[in-house]
Amino acid sequence: MKASPFPKKITLLIHVLVWVLMAIVLFLLSPLSWKVELPNEYWIKQGLLLAMLIGVFYFNMHVLAPKLLFKGKTGVFLLVAIGSSVCFLLFIQEFEKWIRLPELMHYVFRPNEAYVPKPRNFTYDLFILLLFFFALGISTSVVSVQKWQADAALRRQMEKERVNSELSYLKAQINPHFFFNTLNNIYALTTIDVDRAQKGLLKLSRMMRYVLYETEKDKTLLSKELEFIKDYIELMRMRLSEKVPIELDLPERLSELPIAPMLLLPFVENCFKHGVSTNHPSYIKIRLFLQGKVLYLQTRNRILPSKTRSAEDLDKGIGLINTKRRLSLIYGDKSELQLDNENPDNEYRVDLKIDLS
Questions:
Q1: Residue 296 forms beta bridges with which residues?
Q2: Which residues form a coiled coil (predicted)?
Q3: CA distances (Å), origin 164, targets 44, 159, 184, 255, 332
Q4: What is the DSSP annotation of 131-157?
Q5: DSSP strand E in 171-221: where?
Q6: Residue 9 pLDDT more than 70?
Q7: Cβ distance 258 to 356 under 8 Å?
Q8: N or C: which end of the chain has fewer CB within 10 A?
Q9: What's the confidence (pLDDT) of residue 147?
Q10: Domain that holds residue 42
């Protein structure tokens, strides 16, 4: 992604405005108010003063602030700034003496009086120092903002890389976990019904293509995720008897909205893992629907006596732990997950809501 050109343009605009303002102060405000014809030496001195202020601005921006202030050497930075201001003032004073500016300015304002050297006007020196520290302060502010922006961009990049690495790790854990359980199911079928086991392998191969190609992407289409869920449920049906009713409310088609791949599977898988028993009545209910761009997934399964645990314990499988972490990283506040096993129906309930907009 290309960086926006606007921050650089704004920085350039700040520089231009600072120096236009400084030039107005040095070349227009005071000279125009005097309403006299000033000698060329005065303009030379003003031009030199502006050039030196620009030098102070960029020397501080590229050397003093990065080398001292941002390295934690605040005391040294202040000492160098004060020392530089004194040297700056002394140089201007000596330059004015060298070009005889005090004498020339005397004859401009008092042409009929003889020139007698007088003590220097402290107010003028204070004005020069204020200009120096103004340039230094603006320079420090600009480079500080630039550093803050660069640090913030670096933090965002590092956080993005951390999240991407964590998501890759979580997906790498989910995929083997899914295949491990599914292969166990097909293996169980080989001793019962070879034909059904072969059909199961064909379905699994189609699901593997989805996992291999779609999970490499950050997002897949919701319709593909739905087909994957349907294949998985059909695969699970093959090993269950008719004594375990499965109620499905799945749409035939869904809008082509993007969704993180294999995000819904662990919730569906959890129903078959914890809600099926050969010794006790059990059932599975799965409902998935879309309202606008908000996806809802609801699953229900009977909490079996031998598997009666707290909701916290039921959530300790690798798939659910990783999926909840993925939900948090990818969707944050745009997702809501409610897990409940304390209800009159003795059901383990999952209610998931994801805003896919």
A1: 289, 353
A2: none
A3: 59, 8, 31, 26, 15
A4: HHHHHHHHHHHHHHHHHHHHHHHHHHH
A5: 220-221
A6: no
A7: yes
A8: N
A9: 85
A10: 6-155
Residue 233's nearest CA partner among 184, 285, 198, 191 is 285
Is 55 domain-assigned? Answer: yes
For residues 228 and 328, membership in a common domain is answered with: yes
Close Cβ partners of 350 (under 8 Å, ≥ 6 residues apart): 267, 270, 297, 298, 299, 300, 337, 338, 339
Q: Is residue 165 part of a domain?
A: no
**pLDDT of 286-301, one tens digit each?**
999 999 999 999 999 8
DSSP 349: E
Kindly state the average pLDDT of the residues 147-171: 69
Long-range contacts of 42-50 (CB under 8 A, 24+ apart): 42/101, 42/104, 42/105, 44/99, 45/92, 45/95, 45/96, 45/99, 45/101, 48/92, 48/95, 49/92, 49/128, 49/131, 50/19, 50/22, 50/23, 50/26
> Between vectors from CA 61 to CA 139 and to CA 14, what angle results, nearest 5°?
45
Query: In a 10 Å sphere around its CB, with 0-12 CB exposed, 13-18 middle and 19+ buried, how is residue 110 labelled?
Result: exposed
Q: How many domains would you assign to the chain?
A: 2
Amino acid at 5: P
Is 162 a domain residue?
no
**What tokens were used for 206?**
């189609």
- Domain assignment present for 175: no
- Considering 105-109, 168-172, 262-266, 332-336, the range whose residues carry the highest mean pLDDT is 332-336
Which among 171, 185, 220, 212 is positioned nearest to 319, based on CA atoms? 171
pTM: 0.53
Tokens of 60: 């501080």
- pLDDT tens, residue by residue, 17-27: 777 777 777 77
Q: Which residue has the higher pLDDT, 316 or 21?
A: 21
Same domain, 121 and 228: no
